[in-house]
Amino acid sequence: MELETPTTFRDRPININESGQRKWIYAKQPQGKWYNRRTAAGWLAILFLVLAPFIKINGNPLMLFDIANRKFSIFGQIIWAQDTYLLALVMAVTVVFIVLFTVVYGRLWCGWACPQTVFLEMVFRRIEYLFEGNYRKGRKEQKMTTRIFFLKTAKHAVFLIVSVLITNIFLNWIIGPERLFEIITAPIQENLMGFTIMFGISLFYYWIYAFFREQVCTMICPYGRLQGVLLDSRSIAVIYDYKRGEPRGSKNAGDCIDCHQCIAVCPTGIDIKNGSQLECINCTACIDECNIVMKKVNKAPNLIRFDSVQGVESGRRSILNARTYAYSAVLAILIVVLAVTISNRKPIDATMLRVSGSIFQRVDSVTYSNLYMVKIINKTQADKVLTIKVITPLSGKAQLATGQTMLKKQGILESVMIVNLNQSTLTGKSTPIELGIFEGETLLEKYTTNFLGPEK
Hints:
- This protein is an alpha+beta fold.
- Helix content is 41%, strand content 20%.
């Protein structure tokens, strides 16, 4: 049986030509209600990125990922590396959220909230429009003059300054504004390595936004390729109504006049009329531009719109349906479960391990002792005066090298502890004991370990 060979196909990203060379994309600046909405969403996202480390909830930053100290503040709740079950829950919720969100809403994240898109479209492209104007083919096709050279030099200088600012924004999320301010105000000689790393990262961001640009989305980010297995006929996406628009070009044919304006404004250079593509980031620029054209030719708007394949086929828009509500409810429930789990976690975390290689010591004729290494983390926003006691056996005694312990908020205690047991309570070479960490008379945490003694 002879198979039919398709006459058209695409075997490479749209910004790569037949010889594998980069095709530069110079997108025309969109205008319209969707672009205004995306501008508002983009600047809200930038404000969140800038302000999140400064905003305090119960004394904790709204967002902080202190990797060096293995401490993460998520919406004001501190999660330590020891909170493995919470980290696992966060990862599980994140994965499920991404899958369900993409299945229902497509790549809305990419076009509206992803930092790469937000900074490129709302900051760097606007700087480019300011210096070089709103264009379709780009200034590279123009003859280089003194004025154009000056404008391009000024543009790249501003690009570099903004890249440094972006680096500091993301450093705020990792080391916090207090530590960043200390580094900035200190002499460069004291933090030469830090300044060198920061400037190197800034140059990397400058290269990304000035030269690499949309290739991050089309060649590096795996999310665009994931959509091929996550989207289905009911997923919401920016879609061309091919039933209404085809055949193109003729006044007596479909509504699409094949003006290519949707391609001119696309930041990744695709033709939305060719269907769902990995480069499409759902930025809605083509919706606004097509609506402008439809208005000029006296035809109904929304030839390109947010819809699903099923909606186009049936002729009924299906953005809000039972599945949308159900999946959105699941997403909300996951977030609530995560929030409740974090808020109800234990106030302290303790680790008590017998000192490696140590054996029991005989204190007197009836008492034996073991040495333990103790690490206690105060996860609350209040200072705590803690005492460690032996719960079982009742006659046992525990003594920290520091005695009664004042543990600062979000503080860590590491100390040696001596546990004494009477010989009569020993059950053999290894005796299970239960230790309790108390604040006054309130038991905060229990810990079970073994006590070594002589064989009976």
